[in-house]
Inverse folding.
């Protein structure tokens, strides 16, 4: 029966692609919807971290068990992270802590249609710039043209919000937070590529860092009244939902399915598939949240999506390990 239930590589690849795109699209729509349901940004970040930790940290303990039984010194953070301490801190600070805090904070100021363009759309831009600065990677003329389209699209979206700031608007704050969150994830991606880290172990490490460094401090600050929280004001079902979707879904499941997608389709075709996320999430925001779709958003969305597709289609397929490539893509 087990053999009969095995699926072909094509089926697994297609299912992984569908699941990945759905979760990444849902991340943007649900995170914006959550901004009006009671929890504060740091509350959602805490739920994400706890939810992901409930799966990844026992998995990490089991993964390192044979080495510990053999007397080898493994990992850091009291055995919670499978990576050395300096790698755990570098990757965890950017990808595990700052990204979540900044992204969730952005949804409390800017609509999901803006996040659709500025979160996944600006990742190739920041990743290319940081890879050029840190890893000394060359940027081809075709890729530079694609990045130029992305910059123009970001300016069309964020520039309009910045102009509204003179009238007292706050959308520009969310746009800035989205761009900064994307930059942080790009920095995490470059860190992973620089050290050649395994995708699963890196995800375990950043989750362990966030749990150890953020959760106790945040709970202490809200317990002493220094920071506000709505954890006690919302139903337990809301907290559980955020932990399951934001933690288990966005971190664990999408991380596994994205890895499987890259293994089947390769990094270039996988990036082209994930280029669907900005458009789908923008449509989801209009359909489910009733957000307006202005001309500058449509133009920015088209430019960003076109820039991603153009840059990927012109890129040569690198002969790099799948584990390293999976962490250089988008992340919800």
């Amino acid at each position: 029966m087990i053999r009969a239930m095995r699926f072909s590589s094509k089926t697994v690849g297609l299912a992984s692609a569908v699941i990945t795109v759905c979760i990444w699209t849902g991340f943007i729509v649900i995170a914006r919807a959550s901004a009006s349901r009671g929890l504060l940004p740091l509350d959602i970040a805490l739920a994400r971290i706890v939810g992901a930790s409930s799966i990844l940290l026992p998995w990490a303990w089991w993964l390192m068990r044979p080495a510990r039984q053999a007397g080898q010194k493994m990992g850091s953070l009291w055995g919670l992270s499978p990576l050395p301490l300096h790698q755990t801190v570098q990757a965890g600070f950017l990808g595990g802590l700052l990204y979540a805090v900044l992204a969730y904070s952005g949804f409390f100021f800017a609509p999901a249609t803006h996040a659709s363009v500025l979160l996944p759309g600006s990742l190739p831009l920041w990743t290319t710039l940081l890879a050029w600065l840190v890893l000394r990677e060359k940027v081809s003329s075709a890729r530079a043209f694609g990045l130029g389209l992305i910059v123009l699209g970001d300016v069309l979206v964020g520039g309009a919000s910045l102009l509204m700031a003179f009238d007292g608007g706050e959308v520009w704050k969310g746009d800035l937070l989205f761009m900064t969150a994307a930059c942080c994830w790009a920095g995490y991606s470059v860190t992973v590529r620089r050290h050649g880290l395994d995708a699963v172990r890196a995800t375990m490490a950043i989750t362990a860092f966030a749990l150890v460094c953020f959760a106790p401090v945040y709970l202490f600050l809200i317990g002493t009244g220094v920071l506000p929280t709505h954890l006690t004001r919302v139903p337990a079902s809301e907290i559980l939902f955020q932990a399951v979707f934001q933690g288990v879904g966005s971190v664990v499941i999408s991380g596994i399915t994205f890895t499987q997608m890259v293994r089947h389709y390769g990094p270039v075709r996988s990036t082209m598939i994930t280029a669907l996320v900005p458009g789908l999430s923008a449509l989801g925001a209009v359909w489910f949240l009733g957000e307006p779709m202005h001309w500058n958003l449509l133009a920015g969305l088209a430019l960003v999506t076109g820039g991603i597709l153009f840059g990927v289609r012109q890129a040569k397929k690198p002969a790099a390990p799948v584990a390293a490539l999976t962490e250089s893509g988008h992340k919800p």
Notes: Residues 9-326 form one domain. The chain has one domain: 9-326. The first helix runs from residue 9 to 34.
